Predict the structure.
Amino acid sequence: MLTFIMLARLSTLCPSAVLQRLDRLIEPLRATCTTKVKAGSVKQEFEKQDELKRSAMRAVAALLTIAEAEKRPVMAEFTSQIRANPEMASLFESIQKDSVSLAGMDLMDTS
């Protein structure tokens, strides 16, 4: 999860460097988003996997704020895969709504 948070932060601080390595970043995000928990798992495993998916989706949303990111074939294919899967699409939409609502708020008093 920390990796995804760092990736989201890096996408705002140095988008050109992230964009150069975008092809290598998508596959771990895809693996996290498509991993299924075994049916016999305990509740904590389901919650852990759900939090990992949410964190990965936040990283994807942050990557999409980079101007050229969606033009890359790997990113375009991954976003279409997200939108084609109803579970991933609803999660991604909720992440985007959360990020839009948080963008308007000043999260830290710098005075």
Summary: The first helix runs from residue 2 to 13.
